[in-house]
Design a protein that fits this description.
Elements: H1 3-15, H2 20-32, H3 34-58, H4 60-77
Helix pairs in contact: 1-2, 1-3, 2-3
The protein binds zinc ion.
């Protein structure tokens, strides 16, 4: 496969939905092509961040814990004196 073909396979590759043939072709190209390897890397990271932030948004309790922690962190930074 060439770079353009790889990009078109990329989302299925990340989701593990490729047939064994295209899967092997994609892996072969990724092993040889730095540029596509970088694209794969940053795409995977973006998807991961997106899923993480979505999970936090879907979980009110976890979001509350994170907010509380952020508030504590900010309070400590400003000398521990809460805003009145
Ligand atoms: Zn490539």
């Amino acid at each position: 496969v060439n770079c353009e073909e790889l990009v078109s396979l990329l989302s299925d590759y990340i989701d593990g939905r490729l047939e064994p043939g295209p899967q092997e072709a994609a892996e072969g190209h990724l092993a040889e092509c730095d540029r596509c390897h970088l694209v794969l890397d940053s795409t995977q990271r973006t998807i991961l961040l997106y899923r993480l932030s979505r999970d936090v948004a879907l979980d009110p309790h976890r979001r509350l814990v994170l907010l509380r922690r952020l508030e504590e962190h900010c309070a400590r930074r400003s000398g521990g004196d809460p805003v009145r």
